[in-house]
Amino acid sequence: MHRHIRMVLPLLISLVYIHTAMAQDIPSANPSTLPYHEIPEAPDTYTEGTVVARTIDGLGYRYYWATKDLRDEDLDYKPSEDSRTARETLDHIYGLSLTIVNGPQAKPNIRPMDNSQLKWEEKRNLTLNNLWKASQMLRHSHDGDMEDYKIIFQRGDQSSEFAFWYMLNGPIADAIYHVGQIVAYRRASGNPLHPGVSVFSGKTRE
Question: What are phi and psi of 116, to 5 degrees?
Fold first, then answer.
């Protein structure tokens, strides 16, 4: 019994620490306080978690500015008849953000996903906060924790599970790719990205 408690106690302490850190760091879904207006300070050390967290931070900063002040005509733009609109592409990025935040929690991603009741601004707020929450969990994780992180897809009674490795080349890389599409789409629809955005420094000259 005592041995079991000694084994479980560090995990409980770690979960409490992560929950407390997230409660302090995650901003509310208020447009004036949304995360990723600029990239947060880099972690002090390179670890499994901080490297992935920093990659998500880069995605969050890019997404924030790629989606800032989009008009209806920007959201409805598509480069060809058989292409997805920017709005549909952003729906996909929202779904990817859910997969990214669910991974460190080993929470299943339920398919099919229905977000039709959400307005655009709500999806943007949720996407940014999903990325921030995922980054914070990873930033405060410990080496070895990633072995317990999973990508789980569930459709009805059927479930499939993948190692966290697939998060890097899958949802995270895919989201970065699609954010680049949004940047191109808004330029084509006459509303180009803010010229002061610097994806290298993670700061914007306004």
Answer: -65, -20
Q: pLDDT per residue over 162-201, tens digit each?
A: 999 999 999 999 999 999 999 999 999 999 999 999 999 9
Supply the angle between the helices 120-139 and 2-25 in degrees, to the nearest 10.
140
The distance from CA 168 to its chain's CA centroid, rounded to whole angstroms, is 12
Query: Distance between CA atoms of 103 and 151, rounded to whole angstroms?
Result: 5
The domains located in the chain, with CATH, are 2-204 (1.20.120.450)
Give the count of beta carbons closer than 10 Å to the beta carbon of residue 46.
Answer: 10
